[in-house]
What does this fold into?
Amino acid sequence: MDFANLQHNYTELKERIEKACLRSNRKPEDVRLIVVTKTHPVEVAQAVIDLGIKDLGENRVQEIEQKRPFLKGDFSMHMIGHLQTNKAAKVFPLVDWIQSIDSVRLVDKIDHAGNEKKIPALVEVNTSGESSKSGCLPEECLALCERVKASNVLEFRGLMTIGPLNGTEGEVRKSFEKLRVLGEGCRRFSSHLELSMGMSSDFEWAIEEGSTMVRIGSLLLGNREGLKQTAH
It folds into this structure.
């Protein structure tokens, strides 16, 4: 995959986002694209930034450590994967958002570690009920949001979820609708509530259900091979 193909994929992706927004009477600028660069080399992540994309997402602290020091430009790094408590302090200097706060214990660990800056954070909710997924239970969401709001290190900004794997459209939409409803109960904690939901296979449904952040990887980047830097 070369840089021209990346540009082409990005153009098509923006068009699909715009159409999904049009169908749901929303503005395209109200949906933030997080490009997931997990398992891709730093050259691919840099190519994404060079394209003008402002937000990158990574699942693992180790990959953030390997890539962030070598990336240049105006961008934000989002931790979107499960964050182990023993790696919380390590990730602070390297990320601008944490989208995967899933327990009071993790928040306690983060507060104990301390930080010189407040990091915007999303509470991850397991809205599909799948045991293989991280995230707090829906009935735990409000209390966890309150705990994040009280944090000295985290700034509560909203909620995140992952739709059911291999789910039908109805099942996926139900999962996203559940997060939107939970979000309504959390609006008092944030003046601008974010709902991070939707990936390559279901982002259009997510937008139609109210997503403000979509996390796209394979649809934009294709298979995990380095981009040829011939089109710069």
